[in-house]
Amino acid sequence: MRFLSRKLAGMTALLLAGAALTPCGKALADDPVLQTEESDIIKLSPVTPHRILVQDPVGHHAKDGRVYVVDADQGKLLGMVQAAYNGNVVQDPKGRAFYVGETVWSRGNRGDRADLLATYDPQTLEITNDEVLPGRALVTPKKNDLTISHDGGRVYVYDMVPTNAVHVVDTATHKVAINVGLPGCALTYPWGNAGFTSICADGSLANVSIGADKADITHTKPFFDPEKDAVFEHSPSHSEDGKTYFISYSGLVYPATLSAHTVIDKPWSIQEAAGMKAATNADSPFTVTWRPGGWQLAALHYASGHLYVAMHQGTFWTHKVAGSEIWELDVATHKLLRRIKLPKPSSMVGVTQDANPLLFTDDEAGDFFIWDLKSGKIVHTMKHLGDDLYFTVALGE
User: Fold this and answer.
1) Domain limits of the chain?
2) Would you tell me which CATH number, out of the four given (1.10.3720.10, 2.130.10.10, 1.10.275.10, 3.40.50.720), belongs to the domain 43-393?
3) N or C: which end of the chain has fewer CB within 10 A?
4) Tens digits of per-residue pLDDT, 160-185?
5) 340-350 pLDDT per residue, tens
């Protein structure tokens, strides 16, 4: 007890001494002054040919769809925006904005439905306009569900409510300028600033010329048999001149120049371009050979005229199978230039439009591969960029 009393006395003396050294009633140290928080928005650098958009519908919980903004030079994710329920995305050809078509319900999975076209600032990723649409296609996200004219003045929104139609949105006013009814036809392939073309169920094309307050429609003759050898929706197209290469399930390439009076040239075979026999169609469906397949299965580098197609070995009805190789073809000479073996099968192939192009592939796990096209080597692998990577959008497409 004596030892404890001495210890307590010593502690008391120290406390008193400390109190004597400080002003009366003041704490040993001033309370910290909390700084007022200020929010700001980090601006991204201007859009470049190697800054791309990647569509991810997140198929197993599709209400959570999104679009990734990727710096392909660094293999870096810069940002992300929502693209709810089977959304689609298209970019202004000069990178001034990008547009997301999406659908939401007032109570999550039910209630009032709203079909929307959101306009995004590409540097802040803020919505600058949120337009309500008369309707929008809700099948699956396809690149040609939502497209844009070459000058960026019109966005074309494919719709199936209550029938096949296309809403033409003026990007200056953000209003629907005209609705074009297209019974039996689907999707949009823009040509110049004057109109677009759609694929029809009988194997023909519908060409839509947009006027001030109406649309004139012409039709081609059927050029493919939808029952025996349909063409892929994701066939690559160039909006500036309407040059389009419709690729069939068997591997035929139909060169077309889209306009009010579309011209379709004689098809050539991808397999024959590689020195093989042309692939069979649905008349002989069990022949195994190299065939095109995937989702965004083909991309075109406009300046070089090089076509990149995801290819796999299989029978006729394997058009959804991911490619184990990317074949590079010259559309002028109809020759195979190179076969790029993939580390993992890819359902997509995308390409940038500059003089030093990059190529993009994916895998089932959602990894995203960035290739240098000149060397044919992978320069970046972005592990699990998303759940269901469907397609890419690059500047100038």
Assistant:
1) 43-393
2) 2.130.10.10
3) N
4) 988 899 999 999 999 999 999 999 99
5) 999 999 999 99
